[in-house]
Structures are given as C-alpha cells and as structure tokens.
Amino acid sequence: xxxxxxxxxxxxxxxxxxxxxxxxxxxxxxxxxxxxxxxxxxxxxxxxxxxxxxxxxxxxxxxxxxxxxxxxxxxxxxxxxxxxxxxxxxxxxxxxxxxxxxxxxxxxxxxxxxxxxxxxxxxxxxxxxxxxxxxxxxxxxxxxxxxxxxxxxxxxxxxxxxxxxxxxxxxxxxxxxxxxxxxxxxxxxxxxxxxxxxxxxxxxxxxxxxxxxxxxxxxxxxxx
Length: 224
Known about the structure:
By secondary structure, the protein is α+β, with helices and mostly antiparallel strands. Helices cover about 60% and strands about 10% of the residues.
C-alpha cells in the first residue's frame, strides 16, 4: 500500500488526474483524495492538470452532444416515417390541387404567354412534371426544360441530372442560363445548389389561364 501511495504522489506531481491515477494503480479515488490532499503541486503542473481537465470535459460534452444529436435524428426520422404513411396514393384530383398550389407558390405568374416553374428540389420537380403530364396533359414536345447554373458546377452534369429527374432528353433542353445574384458577387459554396436550378416552360396561353383559374378556385374554396 505504501508503495502505491508513493507512486500516486509521483504521478500527481507529474500532472496526472485522479481518474488517470486510479486507472494506472487501481486505487479508489476516495483513497487518493486522502493520500494527495496535502501534496504541494508546482504551478506549471497545476496548469497542466487544469488544461487536461478542461480538454477532457470539452471532449465529454462534444461526445455527449454527438450521441444526443444521433438519437434525436433517429427519433424524428422514425416519426417522419410513421407520419408519411398518413398520405395514401395521390389521385388525379389531389394532384391537380397539389400542382396548382405549387404553381401558386413557386410558378412565374407575370406573363400571359407561357407557364414557367423553377425549383432546385428534385422531388418537387418530379411531382410538378407529373402534374404537367397527367393533369394538364401537356404534350412532351411542348415541355421546354432549362438549367440555371453557377460557376462551381458542371453544365453537362447538371443537364444529365435534371434530364433524369424530369424524364426529358438533353437535346430538348434550352440554352443553359448562367446567372447569379449580384449580392453573391459570383461566389457560391460548392455544396450550394450542386445541380443548379431546373426551369420548365410551356408556351400555351390556354394553360396559363387554366392554372390561373384553378388558383382562383383554390382561393374561393379556402374562403368558403
């Protein structure tokens, strides 16, 4: 026991924490507290102990937060998976309402000559293409896609990506729009809009007014 005490004193003077000494010698911290309470520790060693304690505490907090974040993510992913089952197969009537609401929110409504929808969310684009094809019955040849890119992405990669999402051939795409807001000063992070923005045009005056009418219908029925 005396030998362990001397080792503990030596380790403490070297800047080891109680936890570290316990692991090395197998001596309970309560015993160490009795042995080491009168030990004078040099200032540099005290600073080292304090630094190591803070470092260990910071790591513990970081590890705890990471584990907690994973648990929270898993919890909400499970919840979203369960609530997704509340949505059954979408009927044509429901698709009309969804597509109309999407165009009301995201579509270009300042022209009488064409319908234009743009977005960077592939799932939303896929759903809206379904609306064009199955509700609006737009012929394939009238669907005019376009990609808006920025300096950090490949035009060809972006076109291939949106071609797959929209199920439209690349040869049908209009000239790529290389445009960026003045506020960004032509700088974007590489992970921002990795495939640019997809635009889809339909030059059909009747469809313009049809969708405007559906939007009016939504407004009227929601106020009823």
